[in-house]
Amino acid sequence: MRADLLDWTAHLTEKNWLPHTDWRDLLRETRTGSTRLAISGPLPPAYLAAF
User: How many CB atoms lie within 10 A of CB 41?
Assistant: First the structure.
């Protein structure tokens, strides 16, 4: 899992839009054992944001 995360992060660092995301926060939360889900696409409806 961590090797995959490192590979994907290396790939993303080549993208000019990466600084405009919360990828850094996601990495930190992964390191501390967060259960946050990564969701691609538009923001979810407000009633799902609490999950």
Answer: 5
Sign of the dihedral through C-alpha 7, 5, 38, 23: negative
pTM for the model: 0.53
Q: Is residue 15 part of a domain?
A: yes
pLDDT in tens, 25-50: 888 887 777 776 655 566 656 665 55
Domains contained in the chain, number:
1
The encoded tokens of residue 39 equal: 């969701």
Domain, as residue range, for 24: 2-40
Name the DSSP letter for residue 17. Answer: T
